[in-house]
Amino acid sequence: MAIFYLDKLSRYYRTIRTQNNPVKFVIARLLMRAKISKFFVIKQNHYRLRFYPTKISRALWVDPKFWEKNWSLRNDFFWNYLKKDDVVIDTGSHIGQVTIESAIKVENNGKIYSIEPDPTLFKYLQGNAKLNKLDNIIFYNFALGEKNSTMKFISDPIDPACRISNEPKSGIDIIVKKLDDLKIEEVNIDLLKLYGVGFEKYMLLGSIKTLKKTKCVHFRTYAEDISESYNYNYSDVFKILIENNFKIFQIQKNCKIIAIKELDKLKFDKKNISDFVAIKDLRDFISRTGFKIEE
What angle separates helix 22-33 from helix 55-62, to the nearest 10 degrees? Predict the structure, then answer.
């Protein structure tokens, strides 16, 4: 027993030593353990977040520029792309960074459809929207898939990588719906943010009608073993988007994009996790973002 606690203490000490701000990191852990972190507010460039007990909230409380430093490609994209009165579908909203930033950017006449399956994260998402006094968001607490059903969901609100479970006895029961079955009456969807931790293929298969009226899809890739755990190769996501008249580009640094021309050359591993955009009207995209195409 003593060896167990010594090993645990040693690992915790090593974790602290790797932090840029070890003192604030320790305080953050204590606030979470005491269940009082939610009374603290994190200021971001365009919005605020409550310090809910999640890893991303903790990272942002310790370093408010964490998102900007570590997710700069994504951070630049959403604010640059979105315009007043736009309509956005945010899948896998988590605690709401993209939902809230989008709601602020599109202003009161714009609309955000925010979908988060995890019940605890869903409460945090709504809490952060309330903190920013936003009323142009429609919230949905279920997962998206190829068909309407019920599935097992591995729920760990502290870890952002919550996912559908392949084990019938593992996780909690959640409702799964097709995106096409939601009452989204707008003629055009300006942006669909696709985030399903490897479940994207099935999310898209339930979204074919929605894709027909969508201008742009933002998504990211994962290591191949994640998609393979759901019995497909991640290149299938690219193929579905291409079949629905999208051209796919990889987001680069310094507000640049590069066209994906050969799917068989893409590598899906931990070293090549990246952000992509699927675009129907390239001229409109460039006009919105000011991004440049890298040859």
Answer: 140
Per-residue model confidence as pLDDT tens for the chain (295 residues): 566 556 666 676 677 777 788 899 999 999 999 999 999 999 999 999 999 999 999 999 999 998 888 777 777 799 999 999 999 999 999 999 999 999 999 999 999 999 999 999 999 999 999 999 999 999 999 999 999 998 887 776 566 556 666 666 667 888 999 999 999 999 999 999 999 888 899 999 999 999 999 999 999 887 777 777 778 888 899 999 999 999 999 998 888 999 998 776 666 666 667 899 999 999 999 999 999 998 7
146 in the same domain as 108: yes
Please count the structural domains in the chain: 2
**Structural domain harbouring 22:** 1-68
